[in-house]
Amino acid sequence: MKRVRLDFAPSGLRRTLLRAPMAARVAAIAALALCAFALVQVLDYREAREEVDAQLAALRARAAVPAPSAAPAPAALRAPVGEQEAVAVNAAIAKLNLPWRALHDAVRAATPPSVALLALEPDARKRVLRITAEAKNSDDMLAYVSLLEREEWFGSVTLVRHEVVEQDPNRPLRFQLDAAWEAP
Fold first, then answer.
1. Is 90 inside any structural domain?
2. Mind telling me which InterPro entries this protein's record contains (predicted)?
3. Do the beta carbons of residue 156 and residue 170 sit within 8 Å?
4. What pTM was computed for the model?
5. Residue 43 — φ and ψ, nearest 5°?
6. What is the pLDDT along the chain (184 residues), one digit of tens a residue?
7. Domain housing 136
8. What is the CATH classification number for the domain harbouring 122?
């Protein structure tokens, strides 16, 4: 026969907890522990957030107030820049400010397949680009000079020198051009 449980006592929380299976009790305790852990994490987050907001407000307040002007350093403490150093710095700045990409694109657009570029040497002070190239014959060389003159970047193109390379069995014509560039 099956055992019958008769219980006429009024139900309550304690009675319900005692009659609950062991797995349900463990799950309830784990859920309470998880809720307590989450509560602690939320409180820590709020505290950290308030601290960050306070620091951010302090930074904004500091940025809004103009800094007191510092007294200029006496001239004796500043090291004078020598003339050679000034020339070197200005030369470096001029080299860095060269329109490299535009010059390269202009030369590339004007260079036919019959001409081989060997070197591009810009001179920032004179605004001149020295081009060293090779061609199979003088007609290709002169055609290249005229193509460069038509480019809008170059104001004048001058043939500086040319020679036949005797060591090469094809005997190409090596030449140098000076192309003065102008900003379009």
1. no
2. PilN
3. no
4. 0.51
5. -65, -40
6. 788 877 777 888 877 777 788 898 899 899 999 999 999 999 999 999 999 999 999 888 888 866 556 555 565 566 677 888 888 888 788 777 777 888 888 888 889 999 999 999 888 778 888 999 999 999 999 999 999 988 888 888 999 999 999 998 989 999 999 999 876 5
7. 98-181
8. 3.30.1360.100
Which residue has tokens 């001409």? 115
Dist CA 121 CA 107 (whole Å): 12
How far lies 180's CA from each of 75, 122, 132, 156, 162, in Å?
42, 10, 14, 5, 19
Tell me, what DSSP letter sits at residue 64? H
SS3 content of the chain, % helix, strand, coil (to 5): 50, 20, 30
167/111 same-domain check: yes
Can you list the pairs that 78-85 forms with residues at least 24 positions away whose Cβ atoms lie under 8 Å? none
Structure tokens at 83: 């003339």
End-to-end CA, the chain: 108
139 assigned to some structural domain: yes
Indicate whether 58 belongs to any domain: yes
Query: Which residues are CB-neighbours of 111 under 8 A, at least 6 positions away?
Result: 117, 133, 144, 147
What residue has token string 């987050």?
45
* Number of domains into which the chain is organized: 2
Do the domain assignments include residue 112?
A: yes
Task: Count Cβ atoms below 10 Å from residue 115 Cβ, excluding itself.
Answer: 21
Query: Is residue 116 a contact partner of residue 130, using CB atoms and an 8 Å limit?
Result: no
